[in-house]
Design brief:
Blueprint (H helix, E strand, L loop, with lengths): L7 E5 L3 E6 L3 E7 L2 E4 L6 E4 L1 H9 L4 E4 L2 E2 L2 E2 L2 H16 L8 E6 L5 H15 L2 E6 H8 L10 E6 L4 E7 L2 E8 L3 H16 L1 E2 L2 H10 L11 E8 L5 E7 H24 L3 H10 L1 E4 L8 H9 L3 E3 L6 H11 L17
Parallel strand pairs: 1-9, 9-10, 11-17, 17-18
Antiparallel strand pairs: 1-2, 2-3, 4-5, 4-6, 7-8, 11-12, 12-13, 14-15, 15-16
Helix pairs in contact: 2-3, 4-10, 5-6, 5-7, 7-9
This protein binds adenosine-5'-triphosphate and magnesium ion (MG).
The site of adenosine-5'-triphosphate has 21 residues, from helix 5 and helix 6.
Amino acid sequence: MPLLAPDIGIDLGTENINVYVRGRGIVISEPSLVVLDRENSHTVRAVGDEARFLYGRAPDTLIAVSPIRNGQIADFDIAELMFKYFIRKAVGVSYLGKPKIIVSVPCGLDDVNRKALTEAVRMAGSKHVFLIEKPFAAAIGTGLPVYDPIGNLVVDIGAGTTDVAVISLGGLVVSQSVQVGGNKFNDAIADYLRRECSILVGSQTAENIKKDLASAMPLDEDRTILVRGVNQLNTSAGTVSFSAAQAHEAVKSPCAAIVKAIRWVLERTPPELAADIMKSGIHLTGDGARLFALDRFISESLGIPVLLARDPGDCCILGIGYLTENIQLVTPQDKRSRPTLK
Ligand SMILES: Nc1ncnc2c1ncn2[C@@H]1O[C@H](COP(=O)(O)OP(=O)(O)OP(=O)(O)O)[C@@H](O)[C@H]1O
Ligand SMILES: [Mg+2]
């Protein structure tokens, strides 16, 4: 039996979990979802891909739980169970020693939530837990020189949060996390349809509209699609036509909230680092950043070049992967703020 399990990196997303195993690369990309039996809510029926598959087929007999919301643990027991499942799936159980695990967190996560997350991962089967801010990991994943004495500005837009950070000399200089992301775009589209078109749609319909029609900038050519939902007035099935201009109107407000968060960070950035950022631009990561023309909207709002990373949704786990391979670069959560004698 091998002695030590290989170290693991986990990008803990509101929507997706990615797991990296040292020496092997990314081994898991699955939804962060658990389904329970509706009759007996102590019975877990499935986790990750299987949970999504099962819930899609028998939603009446199951309860779907997302144990991570906006980068925080929403349900401790279910989260621990989900970690256990993914750790086992990633490295198996045939090891005597437990792995070290690096986990991504939003910027500014408070001590209570840091401790809860550390504890849940430790209970699930880890020796040491290291928490790494998402934009720091994403910056490494998109190839930025985070350890150099220059300013790098990264905006990681996920499903639950947008994390903005200026990074220099291996640390976060100024950062901000706001609860705006892909889910807020979906909500804004569903709200608009309810308010302006009197039609109720589910989150999957809103998600499809976001990906197929919505744009952060007004489009030259207006396109229209038919949206099916439930008529709010007489609760019968109904269809309305919905234009790209309306979809743009719907997502305007969450787009503006992202720009506001970036501006907040820029206003607090030391001038030398701000000068670097004006030259090298703002780097967008996270799959939420794939909203059409969001890069152009941010660039035109702030007057700074914006670069959307290649495979934005993978940047965070690739950065965590780099740190997993070079674990000496990180400090364990449980050794962080302890004073030491020289
Ligand atoms: N083409 C696209 N256009 C717009 N949004 C997209 C597109 N593809 C994916 N998304 C959105 O990206 C979000 C998922 O991104 P990601 O996987 O980076 O989030 P996460 O890491 O799970 O969440 P978080 O980091 O906020 O906890 C979802 O809201 C999804 O709808
Ligand atoms: Mg993420």
